[in-house]
TrEMBL record:
Cited function: Possesses hydroxyproline O-galactosyltransferase activity. Transfers galactose from UDP-galactose to hydroxyproline residues in the arabinogalactan proteins (AGPs). Is specific for AGPs containing non-contiguous peptidyl hydroxyproline residues. Utilizes UDP-galactose solely as sugar donor. The addition of galactose onto the peptidyl hydroxyproline residues in AGP core proteins represents the first committed step in arabinogalactan polysaccharide addition. AGP glycans play essential roles in both vegetative and reproductive plant growth.
Domain Galectin residues, every copy: 176-385
Family listed: Belongs to the glycosyltransferase 31 family.
Keyword Transmembrane helix belongs to the record: yes
Family matches, as Gene3D superfamilies: 2.60.120.200, 3.90.550.50
Listed name of the protein: Galectin domain-containing protein
Region (Disordered): 63-82
Record localization: Golgi apparatus membrane
Database matches in CDD domains: GLECT
Length: 663
């Protein structure tokens, strides 16, 4: 007992000594941390809540000449941002970033002023010249646009909808492109017979910078994609299914099968299969999203002789389990089949199910009008079977419901609360019709308090332009812009929306959205009324301190944008701004002083930032202006197909602001 007692005393003294030695170290670490915080975040504690979300410098409000029909010139706002004001919807630190950005010493930054926009201007000039010629051809066209639209599925495509398509014979090709004139239907199958090429060296700069060798790795991969039609020149076609087998993985040596979608050059969330099977309840049409295959990095436990004998003795049934390797191998032929199901696409290789990918919102089976095979592969043949015999999306008679019910009201003489400009592509007949039948039926539009118009540029094809002309003449809700539609020139459509909202209507606010955006107009109008009407408003899903991409396919060069970050800007699918900001934009464009950038939402942020130099702007952020897809209780929902638009409208009519995220 004495020995045990002495041991306890000795241990207790040791712990006390350790605590005494450790205490100064902890105190020094805490002091260093507090010193770091006080230096890096000095002044953040002064930021407090503010009633109005404003920031800016004192100065007179810059406005243009009064609008026609006697619109009065607005007076300079009296209110100014208080020190420490926070932008609505953001936290304390982010609000302080914006406040400091405005209150910083030195000359004010002119966003992109050093940029060289000659390439964009040259593209715009060519588009205007080509557009004038295209409009003359469309006006002189005397054919039947109803029958033409049903056949117009792309250059070089046949007028019929064949039940099968095949491309075979000859030597193996490194790439293949197969047109599916009328898309796919449930049960349609596309089969690719090919050989995966051997790995090739590829340089990865990030690996070299990390010190992992010279940055050279061996890569073996290819892609099989179901694609749709691109909406405008310069824009990549949507990837309805992107299937990317990576035989050596992501430079890791472990094979991976990746699936994804891409719409309007925005990739979705990837689904990756690495040999680990999906859960039993994670299925598509009864198939697992990812099947199991052998993995060299996992050693599975084997049954011992004793456990095997015991299981046999007690009569326990043993289910035989088959193991398969990764379905693709270098320099070996394969047969890949993609079959369209009710809930998604099913991928089979060599007759065995490998993976299933659920349908993503915004895409329908009939949208898959092409197959592209690219990368490290030799294509021997491609077969598409059980194809649909008709494509409803390309028939004006089936898409456009020529009814008096859907015609637009004329522009009123009296002032309105909101003007909505909707950016739309030339051949998006079904998207425009879906909007007419859904959120353009809100009482605010029907009663004339809100006016909505589509802003559409021209196509290279005179038949499509003639069909657009007929649609515009009947419904009266389309503003045709006489230039050829290109992705880089979307910013010109935004300028046109501001000009129309200033010159043709008398509105308090202007909203810009896309033709795949569903807008809850009642909620948007309610949101507008909650903010200070004496101050300019910029409302949307705001981005702060976003940096341009300098590498990759969609890189922005330093000549296009020399600054390190973009100005604060709202995402393009939907945002609201005050009429005085739109008036300033239209005025600068009229006197050729408006600076343009190929990304229209960044351009709007740049213009609002310029206006904010003289009149403080309310920057109001809300994540319910959804950038990607839809969330419950949304203000706007993006990437919505015509079918989803109708579904959203039905749910709203039933009093539920829920999404229609079809799998």
């Amino acid at each position: 007992m004495k020995r045990a007692r002495s041991s306890e005393v000795f241990l207790g003294a040791g712990r006390a000594l350790a605590r005494r030695r450790l205490a100064p170290l902890l105190a020094a670490a805490a002091f260093a941390y507090l010193l770091f915080v006080s230096v890096k975040l000095a002044g953040f504690g002064a930021a407090g809540p503010a009633a109005a979300a404003t920031f800016g410098r004192p100065g007179a409000a810059g406005v243009s000449e009064p609008l026609r029909r006697g619109v009065e010139k607005p007076t300079a706002p009296q209110a100014r941002a208080r020190p420490g004001a926070v932008v609505s919807g953001y936290g304390r630190i982010t609000g302080e970033i914006l406040r400091r950005q405005e209150a910083g010493a030195g000359p004010r930054r002119r966003w992109g002023q050093l940029g060289n926009f000659t390439e964009l201007e040259r593209t715009a000039a060519e588009a205007w010249v080509s557009g004038a010629r295209a409009w003359e051809e469309a006006s002189a066209f005397a054919g039947d646009v109803d029958s033409i639209a049903s056949h117009d599925v792309g250059e070089g495509l046949p007028a019929e909808c064949p039940s099968s398509v095949s491309v075979s014979g000859g030597e193996a090709e490194s790439e293949a492109a197969v047109f599916l004139p009328c898309g796919l239907a449930g049960g349609s199958a596309v089969t690719v017979v090919g050989t995966a090429r051997a790995a090739r060296p590829e340089y990865v700069e990030a690996l070299e910078r990390s010190g992992a060798g010279n940055g050279t790795v061996m890569v073996a991969q290819f892609a099989v994609e179901l694609r749709g039609l691109r909406a405008a020149d310069g824009e990549e076609p949507p990837r309805i299914l992107h299937l990317n087998p990576r035989l050596r993985g992501d430079w890791s040596g472990r094979p991976v099968l990746e699936m994804n979608t891409c719409f309007r050059m925005q990739w979705g969330r990837a689904q990756r299969c690495d040999g680990t099977p999906s859960r039993d309840d994670d299925q598509v049409d009864g198939f697992r999203k990812c099947e199991k295959w052998e993995r060299r990095d996992i050693v599975e436990s084997r049954e011992t002789k004793t456990s095997s004998w015991f299981n046999r003795f007690i009569g326990r049934a043993k289910k035989p389990e088959m193991t398969w390797p990764f379905p693709f191998s270098e320099d070996k032929m394969f047969v890949l089949t993609i079959q369209a199901g009710v809930e998604g696409y099913h991928i089979n290789v060599g007759g065995r199910h490998v993976a299933s990918f659920p349908h993503r919102m915004g895409f329908a089976l009939e949208d898959a009008t092409g197959l592209a095979v690219t990368g490290g592969i030799d294509v021997h043949s491609v077969y598409a079977t059980a194809l649909p015999k008709a494509h409803p999306s390309f028939s004006l008679q089936q898409v456009l419901e020529m009814s008096e019910r859907w015609k637009a009201r004329p522009v009123p003489e009296e002032p309105i609360q909101l003007f909505v400009g909707i950016l739309s592509a030339t051949n998006h007949f079904s998207e425009r019709m879906a909007i007419r039948k859904t959120w353009m039926q809100f009482p605010a539009i029907q009663l004339g308090n809100v006016i909505a118009r589509f802003f559409v540029a021209l196509s290279h094809r005179k038949e499509i332009n003639a069909a657009l002309k007929k649609e515009a003449e009947y419904f009266g809700d389309i503003v045709i812009l006489p230039f050829i539609d290109r992705y880089e020139l979307v910013v010109l459509k935004t300028v046109a929306i501001c000009q129309y909202g200033v010159q043709n209507v008398t509105a308090d606010y202007i909203m810009k959205c896309d033709d795949d955006t569903f807008v809850r107009l009642d909620i948007v109008l309610q949101q507008i009324t909650t903010y200070n009407r004496t101050l300019p408003l910029y409302l949307g899903n705001l981005n702060l301190l976003h940096r341009p991409l300098r590498r990759g396919k969609w890189a922005v060069t330093y000549e296009e944008w020399p600054e390190a970050v973009y100005p604060p800007y709202a995402n393009g699918p939907g945002y609201v701004l005050s009429i005085d900001i739109a008036r300033d934009i239209a005025s600068q464009h009229a006197n050729h002083s408006l600076r343009l950038f190929k990304m229209e939402d960044v351009s709007m942020g740049m213009w609002v930032e310029d206006y904010n130099a003289t009149a403080p702007v309310q920057y109001v952020h809300s994540w319910r202006f959804c950038q990607f897809g839809c969330v419950d209780n949304y203000f706007t929902a993006h990437y919505q197909s015509p079918r989803q638009m109708l579904c959203l409208w039905d749910k709203l009519s039933a009093g539920r602001a829920h999404c229609c995220n079809y799998r």
